[in-house]
């Protein structure tokens, strides 16, 4: 019955998000930027595309949202990322059908622009590395940086040279900077997690999160290796990241979201640094990245460790109660989608047994009508995660590849 309840909830959410004019008015500012997968019409379109491809929604509704997403001039500036602008619309367009030949001219233009943007970002990144400077998070992270662009290229044209160029950059990123302290990894940044120099992080930090930290490069490198897209030093890069994570692993196991210089000098993480389990930060997203690394390296010990970490979160009501949001990034929907993907790849059924309870928890907390339509933090993402649970099948559109879950 819970599967039917989940699908019924998805139907109701989708009905509330049927018309961009009423459910998501565009005012040209802030989070309503139409080309944004995070908080714009493009993200809501993913829900309707997934439902249309599975026969649970109409293509007319999907096309309305696609038109809303593509209504403004294409963004190809410095703010363009996987989640905004050319790559976001390319990701969306490729979600329309298995056969990309249905819209070849549009896809060719979006792909070409995304390749151009990626080459420009790579040139800046390698120039920074040549200078021996530390990176900013936006250079390599998923939301704003090259891990996001790499995810696009690996999914859409894995054999293109740009895909290997991104992977080669990530290999270089994982190496210590010449002349730097041996205990600081190559992705150590001199700023705080919000990108600014703050008193709280006077000597910067090492970011572990999936949204802004090293978990995303780990997941991307592992997914590429699993798909046979390999560059020089590929396995060594994965191993370097995993070794650093092993050092900071806490009993449970769990991992903090960030490592400070004080942590490094003390070789210790305080229990208070344990974050709520979320896809973006904390154990959930990192567990999936490590599971993928274990699968890629044929390391059953690491895969098992990742699955134990995830099962520990899902079996601990006190940890789940810390998650007060419902969305994909910070909330239950992100835990749900990550858990489903991990359960599908697990050797045992232990994680799968937790899914009904997660579904019940999410349904019990769902409020209708939704006050926030967005993909990342709102109703569209919640509906997509519920749809996965309701159908118990991988998304036809592969929408969660933008979260590096697959």
Task: Give the helices and strands, then pairings.
Elements: H1 2-16, H2 20-23, H3 41-53, H4 59-69, H5 86-94, H6 104-131, H7 137-140, H8 146-156, H9 161-173, E1 205-207, H10 215-226, H11 234-247, E2 258-260, H12 261-266, H13 283-297, H14 300-314, H15 317-321, H16 332-345, H17 355-365, H18 379-391
Antiparallel strand pairs: 1-2
Radius of gyration using CA atoms only: 20 Å
The strand order across the widest sheet is 1-2
Helix content: 40-55%
Order of helices and strands: HHHHHHHHHEHHEHHHHHHH
Number of strands: 2
Mean pLDDT figure: 92
**Helix run count:** 18
* Shape by Cα distribution: globular
Q: Give the structural class.
A: mainly alpha
**What share of residues are in beta strands?**
under 5%
State the major sheet. Answer: 2 strands, antiparallel
| Amino- and carboxy-terminal Cα gap | 28 Å
Extract low-pLDDT stretches. 27-31
Describe the protein's architecture and organization:
The chain is 52% helix and 1% strand. With 406 residues, it is mostly helical. The chain has a two-stranded antiparallel ribbon. The radius of gyration is 20 Å and the shape is globular.
Condensed summary:
With about 400 residues, the protein is mostly helical. It is about 50% helix and about 0% strand.
Main traits of this protein?
406 residues, mainly alpha, two-stranded antiparallel ribbon
């Amino acid at each position: 019955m819970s599967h039917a309840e989940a699908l019924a909830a998805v139907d109701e959410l989708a009905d509330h998000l049927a018309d961009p004019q009423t459910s998501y008015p565009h005012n040209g500012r802030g989070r309503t930027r139409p080309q944004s997968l995070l908080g714009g019409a493009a993200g809501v379109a993913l829900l309707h595309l997934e439902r249309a491809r599975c026969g649970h929604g109409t293509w007319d509704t999907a096309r309305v949202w696609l038109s809303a997403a593509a209504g403004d001039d294409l963004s190809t500036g410095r703010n363009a990322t996987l989640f905004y602008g050319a790559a976001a619309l390319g990701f969306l367009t490729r979600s329309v059908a298995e056969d990309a030949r249905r819209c070849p001219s549009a896809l060719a233009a979006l792909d070409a622009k995304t390749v151009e943007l990626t080459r420009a970002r790579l040139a800046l990144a390698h120039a920074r590395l040549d200078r021996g400077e530390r990176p900013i998070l936006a250079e390599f992270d998923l939301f704003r940086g090259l891990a996001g662009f790499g995810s696009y290229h690996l999914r859409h044209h894995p054999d293109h040279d740009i895909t290997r160029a991104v992977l080669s950059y990530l290999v270089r990123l994982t190496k210590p900077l010449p002349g730097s302290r041996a205990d600081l990894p190559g992705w150590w940044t001199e700023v705080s997690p919000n990108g600014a120099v703050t008193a709280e992080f006077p000597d910067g930090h090492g970011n572990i999160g999936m949204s802004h930290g090293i978990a995303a490069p780990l997941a991307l490198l592992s997914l590429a290796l699993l798909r046979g897209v390999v560059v020089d030093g590929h396995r060594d890069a994965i191993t370097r990241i995993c070794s650093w994570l092993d050092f900071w692993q806490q009993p449970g196991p769990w991992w903090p979201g960030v490592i400070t210089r004080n942590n490094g000098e003390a070789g210790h993480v305080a229990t208070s640094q344990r974050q709520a389990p979320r896809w973006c930060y904390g154990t959930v997203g990192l567990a999936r990245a490590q599971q993928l690394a274990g699968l890629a390296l044929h390391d059953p010990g690491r895969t098992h460790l990742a699955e134990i970490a995830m099962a520990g979160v899902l079996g601990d009501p006190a940890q789940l109660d810390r998650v007060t949001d419902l969305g994909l990034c910070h909330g239950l929907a992100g835990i749900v989608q990550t858990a489903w993907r991990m359960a599908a790849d697990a050797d045992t059924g232990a994680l799968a047994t937790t899914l009904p309870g997660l579904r019940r928890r999410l349904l019990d907390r769902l409020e209708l009508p939704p006050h926030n339509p967005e993909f990342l933090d709102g109703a569209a993402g919640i509906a997509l995660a519920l749809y996965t649970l309701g159908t118990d099948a991988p998304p036809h559109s592969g929408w969660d590849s933008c979260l590096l879950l697959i």
